[in-house]
Amino acid sequence: MRDGGRIAAAVEVLADIDARHRPAHLALKSWGNDARYAGSKDRAFVSGLVLDVLRRRRSAAWMMGEETDRARALGVVRFVWDWTVERIEAAAAEDHGPGVLTETERARLADPVSLDDAPAPVKGDYPDWLDAPLARAFGEARALEVAAMAARAPVDVRINTLKSDAEHVLKALDPFHPRRLGFPAEAIRVAAPAASERAAPVEAAPAFEKGWFEVQDAGSQIAAAVAGEIRGKQVLDFCAGGGGKTLALAAAMGNTGQLYAYDADARRLAETVKRGQRAGVRNLQVRSPIDPKALDGLDGRMDLVFVDAPCTGSGTWRRHPDAKWRLTEQQLERRIAEQDAVLAGAAPFVKPGGRLIYVTCSLLAEENEDRVAAFVAGHPAFAVEPAALEGAERWRTEAGFLRLTPRTADTDGFFVAALKRRPS
Fold this sequence. Notes:
This protein is of the alpha/beta class. Helices cover 41% and strands 14% of the residues. Helix 3 crosses helix 5.
């Protein structure tokens, strides 16, 4: 495919996303199934352009002065991908291209409308209804915080200390030009891909199948590390999901003590056993909700209960930019109810003097500080304690929580709260 055909395909996929209200990856898969002629580079180009348009949907339209997918795509290749006006003009006029540029389009590409006077949701590329919640969390910096999510995310991996070390993992990933982050200690980063390329396929490395490392954002690694010293402890991962943080907790435990993995959705636990085996975990028990007595006997016994709560996922918008346009106020309300239920369900398993760690990948106070406040109000045996992690003090809020964002921490967005149950 030539450039014009690729741009036209991206516009087609964007129209499909809007018309059918479905995730970007499904629309891209559908297009790929129909476009058998498209090679791997063509698919990477189309996918990259679609996601970059979704990252900058409002600002690109503002700069182009037109609210259409065509205008947004042209704006992104000009202002984000840094194509010249002449290159865009030639591509647009190609056979199978998006069509010859209008005079207005050419003028906007050459001299875009400034974002200086744009409202915060346009500068930050998010829906209008989220402006008030984001202002609660970030105040006047809200547009800057969300705009930072328009950058492509790197690929972070966590060295699995149960099986390997930094030297071996760095060597195994050498073709991808990895680098150690320094903090967190086990984090290695592979840079984000160029605009029209796919992310580095690190999971194809033989070392991955050997269990030497796991793909895990550095922010997620930091959140798991707030668990602290847990060797020899009794630990319950109450919302284990796919097992990413479960495996991080297991590595921190060094195969000592006992780690229980539970999730209300049994399907999400399906890969946990396999992942644990690959990672060399020997102290893990997966407790499935298929058994109504799965958690019997654990009440009041856990030194730590880790709650990676269901949330809107607003902290992952740089990886899933389409999600911010599908999010609604009703969905947020449902998540809030789920979070309250999860915290209430997890509390009885914490022993006196034990700790509960509450984590979301959300930017919103409604899912974070508000949920912690509501929980403590209803569970007076628990009190907030500062989220202690050496090296993470710079991201601690006045209330003692951790808040990580792409702008401040160069990670996905995460919120972490630590609570302690008072001794009997």
